[in-house]
């Protein structure tokens, strides 16, 4: 298979899985909830902080997987920065894979990060609006959250999601260490 910067679910499904390394860069909790069989969980924050070590263990074409694509693209940039260029991002991420009816391994159900962001952002906006009846300046809380959501949409990043991903709830049974990840890459 010739590696390209992006691959869709059908292309990945038809590829020889023995030739590919599947790296799921979502949080351990997201990975524990559901993942592509045979994939290895390498949370994007761990990969960012240890790109050279992890990249040094990648000896074949790798497909990077997240929920919808942005974290996988971030991981791809981090690996390219240390000379690992034989990577591809799964277009549409894990959701596209699942929606295409491909094999999925399921674990304990948890709220995904996007749903958590909607809950926290909505709660902050509602709190800001309600509190502004007593303290008028709290309306700016709602404005700040709205501005953050607009920026998140335009930049395809999410600061709130990044913060929420660090909560213990999103670490599942525990985030893998660099040693555990590199051992799986052997």
Model description:
The protein is an alpha/beta fold and 186 residues long. It has helices at 9-14, 28-33, 44-49, 51-55, 70-80, 93-99, 113-131, 139-155, 159-164, 178-184, and strands spanning 6-7, 20-24, 34-35, 40-41, 61-65, 87-90, 105-106. The strands form two sheets. The protein has a five-stranded parallel beta sheet with strand order 1-6-5-2-4. A two-stranded antiparallel sheet has the order 3-7. α5 links the parallel β5 and β6. The protein starts with 5 loop residues before the first strand and ends with a helix. The model has no long low-confidence stretch (mean pLDDT 89).
- Note the overall shape: elongated
As residue ranges, the low-confidence spans are none
Reading side by side through the largest sheet, how are the strands ordered? 1-6-5-2-4
| Quaternary organisation of the protein chains | single chain
Order of helices and strands: EHEHEEHHEHEHEHHHH
- What percent of the residues sit in helical stretches (DSSP H or I)? 40-55%
Q: Beta-strand percentage?
A: 5-15%
Number of strands: 7
Q: Radius of gyration, rounded? A: 18 Å
The helix tally amounts to 10
Please give the largest β-sheet: 5 strands, parallel
Short structural description:
This protein is α/β, with parallel strands linked by helices and 186 residues long.
